[in-house]
Each structure stands twice: as C-alpha cells, then as structure tokens.
Write a structure and sequence with these properties.
By secondary structure, the chain is mainly β. It is 4% helix and 39% strand. It contains 1 helix and 9 strands; from the N terminus they run βββββββββα. Strands 2-9-4-7 form a 4-stranded antiparallel β-sheet, with no helix packed on it. A 3-stranded antiparallel β-sheet has the order 6-5-8, with no helix packed on it.
C-alpha cells in the first residue's frame, strides 16, 4: 500500500527523438518548481548561482553550493532540485539529455 505522504513521481517524456544524439536546454530561472520525476534518458545537469538548493537523486539528498554538476545515469532514477534556502533570481541551468546507446557498452561497464 502506498504511503499517502509520499510525493507523486512524475514520468517525464523528454523532447529527445530517435533521430537526436542529444537535447540541450539552457535556462535562466528564478526558482526550481519542476516536480520529482524519472525518465529513460541519461541527463547531465549543470546549475550555477544556486547555493541552498536541495538536490535529491534516488535516496541521496544534499544542499548544493553555488555550482552543481550531476549525471543521472539510470532509467527511472527519481530526481529533483528544490528551492530550499536559495534566494538567487539569476540561476543558470543547463541540461543535456541523451540515450545510453550513444555510449558504447564497454565504456559504461568500466570503473571511473
């Protein structure tokens, strides 16, 4: 039975098409309001001017500093950035989404 207090996790359908290598979104924003979500694609997120924002990926939650760089590598990995104590109005967010098949399997199986 689902706990009624758990947030609803949205399933995002990204704008990435079968013919695309990747999709890039470059945004200036004053707040984080996108809900917790999952998607099939890998996602690299760079965030600037966001000290105090709370980043949650899977079961890890942290308050970030002025900069943040995160690679989401699992299909259906829940993630969200929440406003937290951030008061900046000039936040930069760059998101690059791509499918795992643009990387060779041998690369994905290697250690860091």
């Amino acid at each position: 039975m689902k706990n009624e207090m758990e947030p609803h996790v949205m399933r995002e359908i990204t704008p990435l098409s079968d013919g695309d290598c990747f999709y890039i979104a470059d945004r200036c924003k004053s707040a984080f309001d996108y809900p917790i979500h999952t998607h099939r694609e890998f996602e690299l997120n760079f965030i600037e001017h966001a000290e105090g924002v709370v980043r949650t990926v899977g079961d890890s939650s942290e308050t970030i500093g002025d900069y943040d760089l995160v690679l989401i590598t699992g299909p259906d990995l829940e993630h969200v950035w929440e406003q937290g104590s951030c008061t900046r109005k000039d936040i930069l967010e760059i998101t690059i989404q791509f499918t795992s098949d643009i990387l060779p399997d041998s690369l994905l199986r290697k250690n860091q």
